[in-house]
């Protein structure tokens, strides 16, 4: 027998700490009285649809922004009750300092419903705070994009799921699936109710969203998470508590202005989510690509397929004013899957490393072969970071170029001596605070200080220029159309006279210098000319998707020849 849900309404209204009248349960769920009074009279589909109409749409909080974003929200929503300067980590069940957000030694933003299961990168579901939690970076890597299920058998499960995880966690790899992950018992119900919310909230009717489903037949390519029978079990064994209710209320009053109805009315779960047959599951089709799930979930920092030497990539432009942008010239071939890291963190010296002073890191991942001489551009706010068809950008931490001066360091990652350790393989450095890099830094460093890595000293691998909010390389006038060697390009790029700057107007980096493609020749004196070829192939090489009528412009494949 299902308890009378209106009793829950009254209790929640009294206990609700929300200050906004529209977020009190009594007001928020107006119009659902018939469902709440006699839920047995409605089908699962009807209840699901009625709830969706109430909780959708919501105020979307940006994932990363100079305004209030998901980092800011998690600092509040997941705050450690005993220390306002810390957050509680969902899988580790221990606190960590807010200041450690985005660090590989700290914590990141966990998508309870993994991106590879349908959340993606651009829709309102990507930043939905009812499915985001603060999570320890290392333990979160054990979860990755695994679905939730019990994992008690030590003969097949890793228990705990990670050396730093509680003993009541586990994980297991299952061929043909993303594998399973068992979170700590104290939050299993919380996570189950988060998934119940997502499955009701998103039916694919909104732009950049998919129809999210829960089942015992789990399949990432059909956006079906699970395991439903286990989630229903966890929902019962770990019921809603006051902390969960408070968080739900804060999401509504302070951020999204919507609620998770399965926290407010847990009795509805068994009416909407009917346990299905997990024995005769259809074949889950393999993904069309090997694209990782949310790289922030443990895999953002990974050993690169490529290994840069100084000068292999150069910075040729930036905007620290809106729209913030970074433009690079790749001077060596980059295989599909290759990565370029760009950071504005301060380098403190060889024995110290980066300051980790709340700065951020960008990561470009090539989706196709990128030929030497290709220009790639990151533009804040553009889908995939503005990768232009040859790759995508992802970010970690808060990458916000300072208008008062900052530095940019470009590198790849090599394997370090210990597990999880990396070697920084620096390619280029640019500093736009003054005409010289700092030679010594004490303390923690800041965005107005930064040393030049030793690997980049003594050659045309770095540039320090007087401050301008926005700067771009002009290409050395006529030389930009000629065939130059890698060293020739670096000499032009590292000569400050070939740069233009402005303190009030940002440059439009969607219009690529050199048409997005230069010749990088092996020998001096070679010529560079356009090569006729398939238009689609030419567009791929330039990193630009051009209209057909533009194809006869300078945006063509260029080749060195004697």
Write structural notes for this entry:
With 562 residues, the protein is of the alpha+beta class. It has two domains: 44-272, no CATH class; 313-476 and 497-514, no CATH class. The chain is 20% helix and 20% strand. It has 13 helices and 25 strands. The protein has helices at 5-15, 25-28, 33-37, 44-55, 70-77, 137-143, 188-201, 228-237, 242-256, 261-264, 269-272, 486-493, 535-542; strands spanning 79-80, 83-88, 95-97, 107-111, 132-136, 147-148, 170-172, 180-182, 213-214, 224-225, 313-319, 325-330, 339-343, 360-366, 374-379, 391-397, 407-415, 422-431, 462-464, 470-473, 484-485, 499-502, 520-521, 527-531, 557-561. The strands form eight sheets. It has a six-stranded mixed beta sheet with strand order 16-14-13-17-18-19, with no helix packed on it. α7 packs across α8 (228-237). The model is unreliable at 1-19, 288-298, 476-480 and 531-556 (pLDDT under 50).
Largest sheet: 6 strands, mixed
Strand content: 15-25%
Main sheet strand line-up: 16-14-13-17-18-19
Total tally of structural domains: 2
Q: What value does the average pLDDT take?
A: 82
Parts with pLDDT < 50 across at least 5 consecutive residues = 1-19, 288-298, 476-480, 531-556
Helix content: 10-25%
| Shape descriptor | elongated
Radius of gyration: 26 Å
How many distinct beta strands? 25
- Quickly give the structural class: alpha+beta
How many DSSP helices? 13
Q: How far is the first residue's CA from the last residue's CA? A: 86 Å
